[in-house]
Amino acid sequence: MKKRNECLKCLALFLFSTVFLYGVGETYDVSWLQFHFFGDYNEEGFYFSFSSLLPVLGGILIVALYETLFKRFI
Asked: Which of 16, 52, 21 has the alpha carbon at shortest distance from 35?
């Protein structure tokens, strides 16, 4: 049960930090923190692209910092 609670804490921290960083990007018009999705379908096939995975990487970094540094103090 304790392992499950730790997993939920890490998941919640990851989701909160990622959504927070995307929210900052949208609110203050920071292009490298915004999520852009583009999809196109034509006779050549389907093309899609998305940008700015930096908030996702930031969320992973924050969880890693929590796991290594702050977890031992809490």
From this structure: 52
